[in-house]
């Protein structure tokens, strides 16, 4: 029974934090320039992707993007929950995730390299290049504009490794699913 009392206290604190987060979001994020940027970053990649996607491989490429989006969202939630990073400003008043990256920029970018680099070595280098861009160019820009804060235990180099390994792993998983489906 003691755990129920403790859980109720946690919920009460969480309710206060959620209310404060909504006020913070309304005061410092909603309709500010960075908010419009994040909104555009959520939808514009999909518009570009739709114009260039190989319609003959649409389901395969979309599967690749769905896997990326699902895994990116899960890891984003875990990483921020465990305090590796945080998002001071966002698109919606959610503390733990950067929706624009998880469902927009990241899956679309990886769908594009999946489509245009079907062979192993070219994909490997494109994946490494994209991981480098996300880790050492995009992340520092986001930090400069207070959209991302990396905490102790995480670095741009760690991001590079994670993006690189995920890129190869998700490609392998996509191909495995497609092979099993045939």
TrEMBL record:
Residue stretches spanning the membrane: 34-53, 124-142, 154-173
Superkingdom of this entry's organism? Bacteria
Identify the keywords attached in UniProt to this record, alphabetized. Membrane, Transmembrane, Transmembrane helix
The molecule here is called: Uncharacterized protein
The lineage is:
Bacteria, Bacillati, Bacillota, Bacilli, Bacillales
């Amino acid at each position: 029974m003691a755990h129920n009392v403790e859980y109720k206290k946690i919920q009460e604190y969480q309710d206060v934090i959620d209310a404060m987060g909504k006020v913070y979001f309304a005061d410092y994020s909603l309709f500010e320039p960075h908010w419009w940027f994040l909104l555009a970053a959520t939808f514009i990649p999909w518009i570009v992707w739709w114009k260039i996607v190989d319609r003959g491989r649409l389901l395969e490429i979309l599967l690749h993007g769905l896997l990326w989006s699902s895994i990116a969202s899960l890891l984003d939630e875990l990483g921020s929950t465990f305090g590796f990073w945080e998002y001071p400003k966002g698109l919606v008043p959610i503390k733990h995730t950067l929706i624009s990256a998880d469902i927009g920029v990241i899956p679309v970018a990886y769908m594009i390299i999946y489509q245009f680099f079907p062979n192993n070595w070219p994909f490997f280098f494109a994946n490494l290049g994209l991981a480098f861009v996300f880790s050492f160019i995009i992340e520092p820009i986001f930090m400069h504009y207070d959209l991302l804060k990396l905490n102790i235990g995480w670095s741009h180099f760690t991001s590079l490794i994670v993006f690189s390994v995920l890129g190869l792993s998700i490609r392998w998983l996509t191909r495995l699913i497609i092979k099993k489906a045939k």
